[in-house]
Structures are given as C-alpha cells and as structure tokens.
Amino acid sequence: MKKFLSYILFAFSIHAFAGIQVNATRVIYNSTSKSASLSISNDSDDTYMVQTWLDTGDASQMPKNLPIVVTPPILKLATKKEAILRFIYSGSGLPQDKESLFWVNVQEIPPTPKQENVLQVAIRTRIKLLYRPDSLKTNLQQQAEALKWQHQGGNLLVTNEGPLHVTLGKLMLKSGGKSWTVNADMVKPHDSLRVSLPQGAQSANNMSFTYINDYGGYTEIKNIAIH
C-alpha cells in the first residue's frame, strides 16, 4: 500500500486550486423577497462547468422536491466571469414560526488538463441558506443577546428559545483572574447546545462570546452571566 501511494504521488502532479469562488459565506432569504441570490466567479484561466444544488444537512445527499430550488442547476462559467445563482421558494412547505436551514452546494467541474499525468481535484463549496419568515419580527442580534447560559456538569449549556439559528464563534469565560477560550457551534431554534469546557472553566460565572452575523462577520456580546 505504501509503495502504491508513493508511486501515485511521484507519477502525478496534483492540482487542488479552487477555480470557482463563492462570494459570500451565507445566504439570507427573507420571505418578503421573491428570491435570494448568490454571486460566484471564475478567477482561473480556464472555463469551468459548475453544478449547484441544495441539501438539508447531509452533504452526501442530493434531495429532490425541496420547497426551495436553486437555478441554474448547472452552468458554464468562462474565465474571469461572474454568475448569479437564484433561490426561489415555492410558497409552501416551510414553517412560518421559525427560520429554516438549507445548505448551498457549488461543485466545480474542472476542464480536461492540458498536461499529462495531472490528477485534478474537483472542489465543492457548501454555505448556509437561511429562509427567514417576516412574521418572526426579530433579528439575529436580539436572538443572540437572548441566549441563556448555564453550567451543567462539566459542560456549558446554551439554550436558544428564539426562532433563529445562532452560529457561535468563540466563548471567552472568566473567573477571578483566570480566563478560558472555547470554540462553539450553531444552536438551532428552540434547541440547546452543550459545549465541553476545559478543566477549571466550570467555575466561570461571566463570559463574552462572538456569533456570525448576517454578513458573515463576527459580532461580540460582552458581560454575559452564567447561571
């Protein structure tokens, strides 16, 4: 097995450059809009085929008959050109009392290599699409500030009683003169997330944290009490 891998690495030049760039980290689809859009661009010197689809969280699946579709599902993108993907909701099938999460898949199909013995890697980019009903009458800042934090055993339990997904960044916990920094994940609407804490952080009673805002940047919220 080692000899085979060595031969492959010796015989082939591996190209893993992402020719297609996705020009956002998330798509917010407000229900008051007829559609949402996402810009992609070809920064390479070659023409690429691009395949697009949505999934609901399983990256290995290409589910059909979703209430939101992406168009075009396949396109040719010339060198140094840009294209717009559009997302269209059918008008039924999604709850109106909470946000719905989908994943946008952008799969590049590279051209035939001009040189021999070149192993190309087709890169797929996945970003979140969040369908946000206007009836919720709230925003992400308000929902992040409303998160509830409490110690539970050796973990930190964060509870989201609101209707929006909140993607957390770093948690900065403090106790006396000590501090700890922990990475966290997304907490879904009306759900909780358990975050493992390092040794000693269970004594922390105050914290600050960052979350990813609608523009893909980080917003910090300070001086949060832990119960």
Automatic annotation (TrEMBL):
Q: Can you name a GO cellular component term?
A: outer membrane-bounded periplasmic space
> Is Chaperone set as a keyword in this record?
yes
Top-rank taxon: Bacteria
GO biological process terms, alphabetically, are:
cell wall organization
Gene3D superfamilies, alphabetically? Immunoglobulins
Its main localization is: periplasm
Name recorded for this polypeptide: Molecular chaperone
The species is: Serratia symbiotica
